[in-house]
From TrEMBL:
Alphabetic keyword roster: Bacterial flagellum biogenesis, Cell projection, Cilium, Flagellum, Repressor, Transcription, Transcription regulation
Protein name (Swiss-Prot/TrEMBL): Negative regulator of flagellin synthesis
Source domain of life: Bacteria
Residue ranges occupied by any Anti-sigma-28 factor FlgM C-terminal domain in the UniProt entry: 31-85
Cited NCBIfam families: FlgM_jcvi
UniProt source species: Candidatus Acetatifactor stercoripullorum
InterPro entries: Anti-sigma-28_factor_FlgM_sf, FlgM, FlgM_C
GO BP terms, alphabetized: bacterial-type flagellum organization; negative regulation of DNA-templated transcription
Record lineage: Bacteria, Bacillati, Bacillota, Clostridia, Lachnospirales
Keyword Transcription regulation: yes
Record family assignment: Belongs to the FlgM family.
Keyword Ribonucleoprotein: no
Length: 91
């Protein structure tokens, strides 16, 4: 086994790793991030959803008033039909 051949290979390898480190450490390079138009649309949709209230008061206020007055009535037939429709969808 020739020891000097091993040291020559090792020296070549070490010089290549130093050169690689010098090349990648350049201060002139910067990373850039670009957001696609779809990504921008998704961001604006998320912002709109975050700003909107969880409960739509214009729809719930009349029902709340009817419940407080005791005048809210549920049509049993239509409720049963909707319940069966949902059950059949889930099957």
């Amino acid at each position: 086994m020739r020891v000097e051949a091993y040291t020559q290979v090792q020296q070549l390898y070490q010089s290549q790793t130093v050169n690689k480190g010098q090349r990648t450490g350049g201060a002139g390079r910067t990373d850039k991030v670009q957001i696609s138009s779809l990504g921008k649309d998704i961001q604006s949709a998320r912002a709109a959803v975050a700003e909107s209230p969880d409960i739509r008061e214009e729809l719930t206020a009349p029902i709340k008033a009817q419940l407080q007055n005791g005048t809210y009535e549920v049509d049993n037939d239509s409720f049963a039909e909707r319940l069966l429709e949902k059950y059949m969808e889930m099957r």
